[in-house]
Amino acid sequence: MCSLNITLAEQRKHEAELLARLRACGRPITLPDLFRGARPRWATEAADRLEIAGKVTEDETGRLHVAAV
């Protein structure tokens, strides 16, 4: 499933970091904007996993929205 060949613990760490960054931003944002153009390789896969888990949604412009808790 994960093309980066990382452990489940590393995947969860990446998901937590991405979710924290998105929450700190406080508004819908694209991954390139969130990481100021230097998006890490793991960010896209972490975003996909968070979307599958229902923690974020992506709109038609590619902006990620944190789901209401």
Describe the structure.
- The model has no long low-confidence stretch (mean pLDDT 91).
- The chain has helices at 8-25, 31-34, 41-52, and strands at 56-58, 64-66.
- The chain has one domain (8-66): Arc Repressor Mutant, subunit A.
- The chain has a two-stranded antiparallel sheet.
- A hairpin with a 5-residue loop joins β1 (56-58) and β2 (64-66).
- Helices cover 49% and strands 9% of the residues.
- It contains 3 helices and 2 strands, in the order αααββ.
- It is globular.
- 14% of the residues are buried.
- It is mainly alpha-helical and 69 residues long.
Features:
Arc Repressor Mutant, subunit A; 69 residues; mainly alpha; single chain; 9% strand; 49% helix; 3 helices; 2 strands
Class of secondary structure makeup:
mainly alpha
CATH arch. level architecture: Orthogonal Bundle
Biggest pleated sheet: 2 strands, antiparallel
Q: Could you please say which CATH topology applies here?
A: Arc Repressor Mutant, subunit A
Annotation, overall tally of beta strands? 2
Taking the alpha carbons of the first and last residues, their distance comes to 27 Å
The SSE order reads HHHEE
Percentage beta strand = 5-15%
Lateral strand order in the biggest sheet: 1-2
Tally of helical segments: 3
What is the CATH C-level name?
Mainly Alpha
Low-confidence stretches: none
The average pLDDT is 91
What does the overall shape look like? globular
Number of domain units: 1
